[in-house]
Amino acid sequence: MLKIENLHASVDGKEILKGISLEIAPGQVHAIMGPNGSGKSTLSQVLAGNENFEVTSGSITYQGSDLLELDVEKRALAGIFLAFQYPVEIPGISNEQFLQAAVNAARAERDESPLDAFDFAQLAREKMKMMKLDSDLLARPLNVGFSGGEKKRNECFQMAMLEPQFAILDETDSGLDIDALRVVADGVNALRDEKRSFLVITHYQRLLDYIVPDQVHVLAGGRIVKSGGKELALELDDKGYGWIEGLEADLSSQEATR
Amino acid sequence: MSEERKMLEGLSQQEYKWGFTTDVESDTVPPGLNEDVIRFISAKKGEPEWMLEFRLKAFAHWQTLEAPQWQKPEFPPIDYQAISYYSEPRKDQSTRKESLDEVDPTILEMYEKLGIPLTEQKRLQNVAVDAVFDSVSVATTHQEKLAEMGVIFMPISEAVKKHPDLVRAYLGKVVPYTDNFYAALNAAVFTDGSFVYVPKGLKCPMDLSTYFRINEANTGQFERTLIVCDDDASVTYLEGCTAPQRDENQLHAAVVELYAHNDATIKYSTVQNWYPGDEEGNGGIYNFVTKRGMCAGDRSRISWTQVETGSAITWKYPSCVLKGDDSVGEFYSVALTNRYQQADTGTKMIHLGKNTRSTVISKGISAGRADQTYRGLVSMGKKAHGARNFTQCDSMLLGDRCGAHTFPYIESANASAQVEHEATTTRIGDDQIFLCNQRGIKTEDAVSMIVNGFCKEVFSELPLEFAVEAEALLSVSLEGSVG
Questions:
Q1: Per DSSP, what are the bridge partners of residue B350?
Q2: Which is more confidently placed, A30 or A251?
Q3: Which chain A residues have a beta carbon less than 8 Å from that of B435?
Q4: In this structure, how many other beta carbons lie within 10 angstroms of the beta carbon of residue B338?
Q5: Which of B212, B295, B215 is nearest to B254 (CA)?
Q6: Could you report the per-residue pLDDT of B251-285, keeping only the tens digit for each?
Q7: Which residues of chain B have pLDDT under 50?
Q8: Whose C-alpha in A32, A192, A238, B183 is 20 to 30 A from the C-alpha of B276?
Q9: Looking at chain B, which residue has its C-alpha nearest residue A93?
Q10: In this complex, do B435 and A93 lie within 8 Å of one another by their Cβ atoms?
Q11: B contacts of A106 (beta carbons < 8 Å)
């Protein structure tokens, strides 16, 4: 599905990602954990194609082709979805109008006819119910005046509508109470199948109780310092990020002596 | 320069679709302005003596005036002696054609190309159109049908002859020639335009419309529109305009006067799309227009809706004088400037009567290197007891090289009057575009969606056909202006 090799990326000349390699097979859920400033969000932005981040070396192969060749919109149409950590507000465009445009852009890409307003509304109602969102939210301007929890659940609602091949959840759990967290996790789990892959970026182990990952990677200082099974998340939770700093230092000294 | 910006800049070079010229032989007076030219225009139109006198008085007054300098847009001084003040298509057009069959087919074709079919089979069913080509009206549709109901809808040059008493009673009543420099110039040299009179108690059964087209080079267009609604009458009027693509600037200085008696309603909508100039800012129309409505009668209502996307410079303030008690004035505006376009526009709401109400909704969008100013006056007179105004003035900036300015003037001489002013400035952010792109929505679709959302309060005031046209126009004028 996705293969990242020795990825280096910088923003405003400052290197944030310092050689990331990662492979995600179809149907897998990988979790990325790590302290603030470790490069977690940068990785998600680079995968989505944000031009403010410059890829200086390395490669990303997505479904057999070079992802870095594609612009943001083409990546989206190829099935990559990013649930934003901070969804931006767009006054003047209703949630419904926005999502209908997105759904129909995806359908056009697959040579399918656009959904009419009636079919769209029916589908939207169904998916909103799943995300426990009030259908009034459809008529409101995108993200304007949404509560923190509504914004995050709305991102997941969009994901459910668009049914991407590869979804990145960038700290979707932060700021959610335990009930909302369950709703989000249920939404993700409902979408899990043998073809669809996920990259779940989180600060806390808590989310991974509900979305059980196939692999966990610990990111620190722009590198993956440790990878393991789902139990790694528990270990990390137990030992804290101080443990990571030790691992990072080890890695740097290894490199220095090499 | 980022890839995105490059793509966007490429898109903003979008061609002006209406820039073609029509090959019609014209009789054009040599450039220059003096009494003889005015006498020539008056004679050409076969005007009565009083009309010529009105023009000459206006000209004498104009000569005492200096061009105003207080506006924000900057432009080199206009040489009024270098403009030709009269141009008409030749081919025996000196007398207006009674039947469309006699109108030069090239001209009919041109209007068709513009989407304004005039011929019997194709003309719009529910809209009567007066087509003005350079200085003359070439055709007016549905005229007889309207006349049966007592509605007068004809070129003003014809009305001067056929309904002299009516024209004389109202011409210059709302915008006297002493009003301003360009109003004086227009009064002296106006060539054509529309005249509308809706009799007492009649709701005009179809929308009336004028389509202005400047074709000839080096000519100015000075049209004059006069709309009178008698007691309890109502009318909806639409105005559209385009011009060919030319390297030099052309002056368009129109005057529009609206007069509403007791309980009358006039709704005036404009979609202005004069040639805006090329991507370097060469050429384009100077659109310096005086538009004013008089709510003379009690409970009368005048509503201006404008969508301004064209012209190199737009400089106008469609206004309402709320003289009758309980009268209502409204101004809904979308002004879009791109490339090097400049606009200084807004409205004046002059509250004189009791319980008069006004609403101003202005949406300004600036892109490219354009500069835009909202300038508005709300004035509450001494006798305007209980008068109320609400103004909302929103600006949207696309990119980082354009400007938006707001100058709201508020004067109140009555303590019971209420004035509210709200203003916002927003920017289409890269993060908003990124979000849309990440959901598979193309940048130009995203911009168009955001801008149309921004303007929807105004678009909802437009008649349906116009609203569709306005949205399309906005997308074309805007494409690729986010940097």
A1: B321, B379
A2: A30
A3: 84, 87-88, 90
A4: 24
A5: B212
A6: 889 999 999 999 999 999 888 877 777 777 788 88
A7: 1-14, 93-95, 483
A8: B183
A9: B453
A10: no
A11: 440
Is residue A119 packed enough to be buried (19+ CB in 10 Å), middle (13-18) or exposed (0-12)? exposed
**Quick check: B7 contacting A, CB < 8 Å?**
no
Structure tokens at B426: 């927003």
- CA distances to B16, B134, B181 from B288, in Å: 21, 16, 10
Distance CA A228, CA A249 (A): 19
H helices of A110-230, in order, are 117-130, 148-162, 178-191, 207-210
Inter-chain CB proximity A71 and B443 less than 8 Å: no
CA distance A72 to A53: 12
pLDDT value, residue B125: 55
Return d(Cα B270, Cα B413) in angstroms, integer.
32
Q: Does residue A188 contact residue A219 with C-beta atoms inside 8 Å?
A: no
Interface touch B450/A97, C-beta < 8 Å: no
Give the closest residue to B110 by CA, choosing from B223, B239, B24: B24
A:19-78 residues touching chain B, CB 8 A cutoff? 48-52, 71-73, 75-77
The bridge status of strand B249-252 relative to strand B194-198 is unpaired
Q: Measure A152 CA to nearest chain B CA, in Å.
A: 14
> Is residue B323 within 8 Å of B300, Cβ to Cβ?
no
Decide if B401 contacts B372 (C-beta within 8 A).
Answer: no
Whether residue A93 lies within 8 A of chain B, CB to CB, comes out as: yes
| CA pair distance B373, B384, nearest whole angstrom | 28
Rg (CA), chain A: 19
Q: Please tell me which of the candidates B438, B449, B454 has its beta carbon nearest to residue A101.
A: B449
Q: What is the dihedral of CA B202, B203, B206, B209, to 10 degrees?
A: 90
H/E stretch holding B56: helix B49-63
Average pLDDT of span A176-204: 93
Q: Are the beta carbons of B437 and A73 separated by less than 8 Å?
A: yes
Tokens, residue B406: 């707001």
For A228, phi and psi rounded to 5 degrees? -170, -170
Query: Looking at residue B265, what DSSP letter applies?
Result: E
Give the residue among A134, A118, A154, A136 at the shortest CA–CA distance from B439: A154
Q: Do the chains contact at B438 and A81, CB–CB below 8 Å?
A: yes
Asked if A47 contacts A234 with a C-beta cutoff of 8 angstroms, the reply is: no
Inter-chain CB proximity B445 and A101 less than 8 Å: yes
Question: CB distance from A84 to chain B under 8 Å?
Answer: yes
Q: Could you tell me if the ipTM is greater than 0.90?
A: yes
Residue B155 structure tokens: 């070129």
Answer whether A141 touches B (CB < 8 Å): yes
Helix axis angle, B464-478 to B443-459, nearest 10°: 140
Q: For residue A142, what are its two tokens?
A: 């995108």
- Flag if A141 and B435 touch (Cβ within 8 Å): no
- Cα–Cα dist B224/B257, whole Å: 8
